Every structure is written in C-alpha cells, then in structure tokens.
C-alpha cells in the first residue's frame, strides 16, 4: 500500500483515482501530477514501483499544499473572517450559508436538522365539575 502525504492510498484503485483520497488533490490536480511525473494514470496503486511512489511523493510535497497544512490554512482564513466581523464571518459564526444561497426553505446542510416548535398542551385538571 502506497503512503503519500500521510494517507494510505487504496491498493485496488487506479493511481489517478487513488491520489484524490489526499485532501487537497482532486481529479484535475491528480492528472497534472501524473503528467509531470510521467506515471501511467491507468496503473493500479499496488502495481507502482517504489521509484514511482517516491516521484509522486516529492512532486506533491514540493508543489501542493495538502492534508494538515491545507486544513490549517482554511481554518485560519475562516478565523480571520470571524475576527474582522465581516458579513461572511457572521454567516460562519451563525452556521448559515456564506455565499448568498437562500435560507427560507433550503440550507439544511448548514443549519442542521429542523427544529420544530410543537404545541404545548395545558395540564388537564381532575376534579369535580361545578
């Protein structure tokens, strides 16, 4: 099993798909990396030689910000928006969509499950009528 950027790549997948398991590398970045390193995209991860894995590892480490470094940068950017108190920061703080999407009906991913307020029944008195 190839381990690149602290991620174990799935052995049975094509290397083009396997690289996308690394946070920060999508399909297009994966293709660019394979073109630069001249590794066949149709090869399986288990069939890679140690030399090819080393080439991929050095290319990713030198040219891309991935995994922990990228996550830290994204959270740092969000923290900055919260600190300066801009509109986008307020939306992050309130857990609402940031990029102008509607919230009247949708936005369930950001808002979480519905919080419906149910009717509260009055206590029924037991006793004599009268």
TrEMBL record:
GO terms for biological process: translation. InterPro entries: Rbsml_uS13_C, Ribosomal_uS13, Ribosomal_uS13-like_H2TH, Ribosomal_uS13_bac-type, Ribosomal_uS13_CS. Keywords: Ribonucleoprotein, Ribosomal protein, RNA-binding, rRNA-binding, tRNA-binding. GO terms for molecular function: rRNA binding; structural constituent of ribosome; tRNA binding. GO terms for cellular component: cytosol; small ribosomal subunit. Residues 93-130 are annotated as: Disordered. Located at the top of the head of the 30S subunit, it contacts several helices of the 16S rRNA. In the 70S ribosome it contacts the 23S rRNA (bridge B1a) and protein L5 of the 50S subunit (bridge B1b), connecting the 2 subunits; these bridges are implicated in subunit movement. Contacts the tRNAs in the A and P-sites. HAMAP family: Ribosomal_uS13 (MF_01315). Belongs to the universal ribosomal protein uS13 family. NCBIfam families: uS13_bact. Part of the 30S ribosomal subunit. Forms a loose heterodimer with protein S19. Forms two bridges to the 50S subunit in the 70S ribosome. This is Small ribosomal subunit protein uS13.
